[in-house]
Amino acid sequence: MDPIRVLIVEDDPMVMEINAQFVSRFSGFVLAGKAFSGKEAITLINQVNPNLVLLDYFLPDTNGLSLLQTIRNKHYPLDVILLTANRDPNHIQEIFRSGVVDYIVKPFRFDRFQSALEQYRSTLKRFKENRPFEQADLDGLKGAKHKSSVLEEHLPKGLNDRTLQQILQFLKGQAEPLSSEDVAIGTGLARVTVRRYLDYLEKKGEIVMEIQYGSVGRPMNKYRL
User: How far apart are CA 215 and CA 102, in angstroms?
Assistant: First the structure.
C-alpha cells in the first residue's frame, strides 16, 4: 500500500510541529503539507491530494466544521480526523454528521493519537482489498467490541463486573473528563476503589486518562470514555 499522505491544518506553530513529529513517527504515513488557515488548507488539498486531514477546529479565517463541510461539498476523496480543544456537544454532533473518522480532544496523549492513525491505516488497507465485507469486518472498522469486551474478560482479583459496569455507565453520561474523586462522589463508591477500576480501565484502553494542569498545585488525572 502506498504511504498515507497527511495534511495538518493547525494555526498554532508549536502544536503544528508537535503533530508533524507525531506523524513522522509512524511507518506508512508521510506528511504532505501544513496549512495554518482554512484558505491555505483548500489550496494544499488541491495541490498535494492528501488521503487524511488532521484538522483543528479553531482557525483564523474559519472553523473546522465549516472547512469540513466545504471539503464534503467539493467531494474531495479524503478522510478527516479532528484534533481540537473544542468540546461543544452541538459542534461535535454536526462534525460527526459531516463525516469524520475520529475526534481527538486536546490535550491528548500520544497513545490516543497512535491508536487513531493505526485504526485509520487498518481501515484504509481493508477497503483497498476490494472484497465483500462481513459483519465482523464492519464491527472492526467501527471499533465495536463483543466477545473480547473488557466486561467479558476475567477481571483481576478484587474487581467485579457490577462495580465496573456502574463506573462505566456513570462515565457514559458525562460530557467532561472527571477526576477519580468526581467519579467516587457520582457513584457513591470509595475513592480508593474507584481509582483501582479507573487504572484497570485505562490500561485496557476502555477509557482515556488526560493530565490537566491548573494555575497552582499538582496536575490532576481526569478520565473519560
Answer: 30
Name the residue among 186, 156, 147, 192 with its Cα closest to residue 168.
186
CB environment 186-225: b (16+ within 10 A), e (fewer)? bbebeeebbbbbbebbeeeebbbbbeeeeeeeeeebbbbe
> Can you give the pTM of this predicted structure?
0.64
C-beta separation of 22 from 110 below 8 A: yes
Q: Residue 184: its pLDDT value, please? A: 93
Q: Grid coordinates in use for 128?
A: 483497498
> DSSP letter string over 107-141?
S--HHHHHHHHHHHHHHHHHHHT--PPPHHHHHHH
pLDDT of 208 strictly over 50 = yes
Q: Would you place residue 109 in the very low, low, confident or very high pLDDT band (cuts 50, 70, 90)?
A: confident
Domain positions in the chain are: 4-140, 150-224
Q: How confident is residue 45, by pLDDT bands cut at 50, 70 and 90?
A: very high
**Domain 4-140 classified CATH 3.40.50.2300?**
yes
CATH code reported for the domain at 150-224: 1.10.10.10
Pairwise CA distance, residues 222 & 210, whole Å = 5
End-to-end CA distance of the chain: 32
User: Looking at residue 15, what is its pLDDT?
Assistant: 94
Contact 52, 80 (CB under 8 A): yes
